[in-house]
Amino acid sequence: MSGNSFLPRKIHSLLGVIPLGLFFIEHALTNYSAFEGGQEGFKDSVEFLHSLPLIFFLELFLIWLPILFHGVYGLYLAFTSNLNVGRFNYGRNWAFALQRISGVFTFIFVIWHVWQTRVQVALGNTTNEEIGQHMHDIVTQPGFFILYFVAVIAATFHFANGLWAFLVSWGITIGPRAQKVSSRICMGIFVIVAVLFILSLFAFRGDEFASASAAIGSLSSAVLG
Amino acid sequence: MAETATATAKRTVKFIITRRETPDSAPYTEEFDIPYRPNMNVISALMEIQRNPVKADGTKTTPVVWESNCLEEVCGACSMVINGKPRQACSALIDNLEQPIRVAPMTTFPVVRDLVINRERMFNALKRVKAWIPIDGTYDLGPGPRMAESKRQWAYELSKCMTCGVCLEACPNVNDRSSFIGPAPISQVRLFNAHPTGEMNAHERLEALMTDGGIEGCGNSQNCVRSCPKGIPLTTSIAAINKDTTKHMFKRWLGM
After folding, report:
1. Could you say which of A66, A145, B4, B62 is the most buried, measured as most Cβ atoms within 10 Å of its Cβ?
2. Cβ(B31)–Cβ(B53) under 8 Å?
3. Ranges for the 4Fe-4S ferredoxin-type domain (chain B) (predicted)?
């Protein structure tokens, strides 16, 4: 395979599902623990993740590098596509256009989101234990709440529709019937995962995350400082 | 009867045609009012302009140039954009079209003049993917293996492709920023790989589609299958070749 785009395109498609799709589901479930288990539930979920062995390498190889490749190559793919929904106003063509729009939007959002959360932990401005309160401080600002609300919908659409396209691009769903059934399943996944994220956004807005973590925050600052 | 004839003769059909003089010159539009005749199509309207090249405002112009051959939607030569959709002018009946009828060339291809486009890239694509059955030998190779009737039936549908270019015009990934080969030749690979003799060279066609600008350029907008005038299941062909190229990729890696 000399200098061709077949392999990178295949890798782009694969990385979107494994590991990024799996990480995305994990992220939705971890956040949802804030809705289901409140402050304690969320803290336990975050602690569990950060207690995994070789966590740095897991993050590096299962999240950061795949996102970087998928995002940068995705920008190139979006650049080489025309959007022609005006002339061809068909459902699948809209999905094609939205896949590119949501992809570019999600990539920019993810860079911001990583800066606002993971990088702040790395810089020592917040900790994994305080991340719930940190999120509370972010999503109680109306501007950020709207940004996060739109971003989780865009990201979830991109994931669910990308899963549908993955099944086509790897030759798993071939006939129109298979593609129709898989598109219904993927849109079901879109709704379920989007609801998980939205519920957790509302959970982070709750007073529980303000007061309880504020107490922990003041405690830890008292201990540290 | 005579009254109906005069009434019909007075009726006109309004056309707005996108024209250009040379491949590099800027496009412009011209309007025409063409006398209505029963059962006329876009080609017969263009023939009327050829006979009497007068614009709607009464001034003379050059006849509009177009290409057509079979006039029965099997050759693909008269593909153009009619009221926003790429299709064949011969099967575009005036009675079924909303007026004014807007006619423009398929600009995914190089425009030669007016409505004439150069579809050479489609024929080059067929050469690139070896869309033929090699049967020549230095001696008589004898009869080839038989094809199952059930397979022949779906393969026949794929053989209806007339390289008209409508699927490339509809595809959002066929443009000057991408080298994507387009849906039609991918479906032809499926056709010739389905043939019992053609199958012997299946890997050559798959490998052609695994090079730059090959099958990976498909973004699954599925406009092609919605636009194909012959109803060819293009997206089924693309997904089937996705499966075959994926399998071929793994086989090559594993040295199988």
Report:
1. A66
2. no
3. 152-180
pLDDT at A210: 82
Distance (Å, whole) CA A195 – CA A152: 9
Encode burial over B218-244: b for 16+ CB neighbours within 10 A, e otherwise: bbbbbbbbbbbbbebbbbbbbbbbbbb
- Domain residue ranges in chain B: 2-117, 120-254
ipTM of the complex: 0.91
- Type of residue at B84: G
Chain B hits for A94, Cβ within 8 Å: none
Residue A194 CB neighbour total at 10 angstroms: 20
User: Mutate which of A2, A5, A99, A182 to test chain B, going by most B C-beta atoms within 10 A?
Assistant: A5
Residue range A88-112: average pLDDT? 98
The mean pLDDT of A171-185, rounded to a whole number, is 97
What pLDDT, in 10s, does the model give residues A9-68?
999 999 999 999 999 999 999 999 999 999 999 999 999 999 999 999 999 999 999 999
Chain B positions in Cβ-Cβ contact with residue A161 (cut-off 8 Å) = none
State chain A's maximal CA–CA distance in angstroms.
64
Bigger pLDDT: A87 vs A222: A87
Residues of chain B with pLDDT under 70: 1-9
Are the C-beta atoms of A29 and A196 separated by less than 8 Å?
yes
Q: Which one of A7, A76, A82 would you mutate to disrupt binding with B, by most B Cβ within 10 Å of its Cβ? A: A82
- Which structural domains are found in chain A, ordered by start? 6-224 (1.20.1300.10)
In angstroms, rounded to a whole number, what is the distance separating the alpha carbons of residues B236 and B252? Answer: 24
3-state secondary structure of A116: helix
What tokens appear for A59 in the block?
């993050």
Do the annotations mark residue A12 as ligand-binding? no
CATH of domain B120-254: 1.10.1060.10
Q: Do the beta carbons of residue B41 and residue B89 sit within 8 Å? A: yes
The rounded mean pLDDT for chain A is 92
Rounded CA-CA distance A124/A103 in Å is: 30
Number of C-beta neighbours around residue A158 at 10 A: 24
Residue-level pLDDT at A2: 42
Token pair for B138 = 């230095």
Angle at which helix A20-36 crosses helix A142-169, to 10 degrees, equals 140
Q: B2-117: which CATH architecture?
A: Roll (3.10)
pLDDT digits (tens, 9 = 90+) for B50-63: 999 999 999 999 99
Residue with the bigger pLDDT between A190 and B141: it is A190
